[in-house]
Amino acid sequence: MTARAAHDVVAYDPSSFEGLQFHRAVDAFRSGTDTPRDYLERCLATIAEREPVVRAWAFLDEEGARRQADSSTGRWRDGRALSPVDGMPIGVKDVVETKDMPTEYGCAAFSGNFPRRDNAAVAALRQAGAVIVGKTTTAELGGPQPPATTNPFHSGHTPGGSSSGSGAAVGAQMVPACFATQSASSLLRPASFNGNWGLKPSQGAVNRGERQAGSTAAHGAVAACPEDMWHVAIAMAGRAGGDPGWPALRGPGDLPPAHRPFTVAVMETEGWPDLDPASHEAFEQVVEQVRAHGVTVLRREDAPVERFERALVGATALTTSLLAWEYSWAFRPVYEANPQGVSERGRQFFLDRADEMGPAGYEAALQEQNVVKQAYVAVSGRVDAVLSPASAGPAPAWDPDVPAAAGVTWPTGNPAFGTVSSLLGAPAVNAPLMSVRGLPYGVQVMGRHGDDARVTAIAHWLREIVTPVVL
To answer: CB-hemisphere CA count at 13 Å for 247?
Structure first.
């Protein structure tokens, strides 16, 4: 274990851990006993303290953030706040364009890339008064090659990917919320590993702007509480709308009220055998608490659930194949211009896989995806939500400074559980309700396309009734 991995260990307990919760600060902004500028300075102090080990940021714009926070301070003082996120310090995953900061995709081939324009969702956050602190790290090109970011609860473990920095920055209490994206398990897995609340919206529900290459990709939010998570998502969708041809995320301006479901289904996925005994037991304890509140729980012995589970066999490979083909057209010119600027893992994941597929393979993958979607229709029509672990247990050990680890297939963790919502285009929320071996471990709540508010309300209900599980 390296010197860096040997320290910065903080045992996580979901019943007592409390990250930054911006929504609780706004009353003090109104009364003048606190200001967005002072709130930002506290965030910057935490960043200065923890960033040398956590490494959550690809770029920081402290002076720009201070100017934004000063403007927000004036608006709150004058009673002209633009939205519930006015003054909220936010990190933006470095896969979307920002007019005042570089956009380098965690990839050496994009070093120095500076488009000088805002992604649609970033523009929406600015319009809502959010304070953009900087760009958070990402796995290379949003794929499997990890950045140097570490888990804020144990630096010898991964923060997940590809929204690595976004999840870690929230877990390290650097900022209350971050912009994140998901094409496979890129938001839900980091949310699970870092103790975040995370919303992966319905496909197309938040305008991706220039990020339209992947058919399963979505823009979302991670935060230390569901209130801030929801406020960020609504701020983006309410101003930028949805993707071309898709309706925007809809719901109340504040966190949807807690809603008890009548029936839920437990989804195991092909990741179920990879759960260690403690992770399996922690999730089952949550399920039993749900059942104890009068909720009917369907399992694999129920025919529609079993058919769905059978359809999910190979879902991870199917999703990554779809992504490889779609993104290869965006990334191939970059690789051809600078082959040394793309890692071997990135080349294999995006380009070699796409070459093996060809157009016929892609069309076959689309047909397989449709089979999974049809199987899900049969399940989702009978339940209010689907529950599963959000990840295959807590964050696995990972040290990017150890070259021998280069052969690991999924250095940012097994994506099997979080991938399903992307393949289906369904909304999903990570609720940080479990801890295993001192590390965060989340519960996923998934619903039907367009049911983002309802899924969030059910996750809110889980927060109200579940006694967090610590094993």
So the answer is: 7
CATH domain 263-470 topology: Amidase signature (AS) enzymes (3.90.1300)
22-240 against 263-470: fold identical = yes
The CA-CA-CA angle for residues 193, 470, 158, to 5°, reads 20
CA 90, 174, 106: angle at the middle one, nearest 5? 65
Report pLDDT digits (tens) over 297-338.
Answer: 999 999 999 999 999 999 999 999 999 999 999 999 999 999
Name residue 470's beta-bridge partners.
435
Contact of 86 with 75, CB cutoff 8 Å: yes
Tokens of 201: 């919206």
Quick one: 22-240 is in which CATH superfamily?
Amidase signature (AS) domain (3.90.1300.10)
Residues 6+ positions from 100 with CB-CB distance below 8 Å: 61, 64, 116, 132
Question: Hey, how many other C-beta atoms are within 10 angstroms of the C-beta on 467?
Answer: 11
**Nearest-angstrom CA–CA distance, 297 and 274:** 22
**What residue ranges do the domains of the chain occupy?**
22-240, 263-470
Q: What is the reported pTM? A: 0.97
